[in-house]
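Researcher: Structure for this, please.
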Amino acid sequence: MDITIPSSRPPETFHVVRVWQLDSLDELSILRTSLHQELTGRPLAPDGAMAEVSEKIVLVASELATNALRHGRPPTTVQLLTDGEEYIVDVIDQDTSRAPVVAAPRLPGDGGFGLVLAQRLALDVGWFVAEGKHVWARLGAARDAASPAVPAAAAP
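Model: Predicted structure, token format:
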């Protein structure tokens, strides 16, 4: 059974660092490379290796953007925000009629793990409607694996 993620807004203390506009799945690699450079000040290594925090942020941004491009309505906008200690990835699409849902457990390779990954890697995940549907995740260097964004009972 699919589970709807809670509707909530992120903290208001964050400010926008960078914005990307995506029109297709083909642009995800550009997003990942550009986001990594924004976070680290360095180009993405040829082997794709990244620091742990930037790796989590890039992965969550890529998964949320993929969901928006596949299931939402264009245009898709990705925003990186910070308060100086933590980051928020905010992905916006124009399909305000459907809430994002965490897919029911399924076999590896069947897809549907984007929000599951976001919930496991982020400090908090939520969504709201305001000039589009915003799905956001808050991440930071002080990530405590013992306190996931989703209670263990709700995770697949």
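Researcher: Any notable elements?
Model: The first strand starts at residue 3 and ends at 4. Strands lie at 3-4, 15-22, 76-82, 86-93, 101-102, 124-129, 133-140.
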